[in-house]
Amino acid sequence: MFVEPEEMKRYFSKYWRNGSNPELESLCFNCFIIGQRSPIIFMEKLLEGIEYSRASENLERKFERRKIDGYLEKTFKGGFDLRRKDGKRATLFYEGIFEMFKICFVIWP
Questions:
Q1: What is the distance between the terminal CA atoms of the chain, rounded to a whole angstrom?
Q2: The overall pTM is greater than 0.85
Q3: Which of 33, 39, 47, 83 has the fewest beta carbons under 10 Å from its own?
Q4: Which InterPro entries match (predicted)?
């Protein structure tokens, strides 16, 4: 499925911040960006107009999410932290370089 960056931005700025889909634990997108020099530039454009704080690239965090047969643990560094109106915290991070990368959105318990 092809998703425009504006649609992703609309999700973060409208639906998630207002508490839509309270059961969501994580969401990942594989991205191929033409004309962007780095995932960081894309992420900053994606979050433009949305309040966030950027975590240090040295900060390592672990996220566990439920699976049908147990839990899956994911370790990542850095990221962009967001807060929902009700105080729930989430992090948007990326893996990969240049035009091909994955964006993951994790909601902390």
A1: 29
A2: no
A3: 83
A4: Zygotic_Embryogenesis-Asso (IPR053222)
CA gap 106, 52 in Å, rounded: 14
Tokens of 69: 């047969």
Report CA dihedral (95, 53, 55, 109) to the nearest 10 degrees: -80
User: Could you tell me which residues come within 8 angstroms of residue 83 by beta carbon, excluding any fewer than 6 positions away?
Assistant: 51, 89, 90
Percent of the chain, pLDDT > 70?
Answer: 83
